[in-house]
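Both lines are retained for reference:
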Amino acid sequence: MGSYASVVALDGEFDLADRQRLADAFDVAAQGAVVIVDLSQTTYIDSTVLWQLVKLRNRNGARPPAELILTQPTGSVLRLFDVSQIFDLFVVRPSAESALTELGWREKAKHITVVGRGRDAGG
């Protein structure tokens, strides 16, 4: 386990077609001591993405519960968490920056951005 925090930003829409890209990004992120999944720019996810998040959570299950943190789920993403009734499985913070600061990892963070549909690589 690395001595850094991994921040995975999901930007855009994600579904079954993105399963392997997300699994790969989460595998890389899981090498850090803390994994923060930033959902602030995520406009859509389906149950495939929820399953990837649950797998990541369970993978980190031997660690303290705050080692996987979700930030800023909004709109349809927040509704999916509510409808699926799995929201309580996760630690949620207002932002990636506030989570990093709270845990003392702000200066030791590695960022990964996964760009989904509805976004372009340039922003």
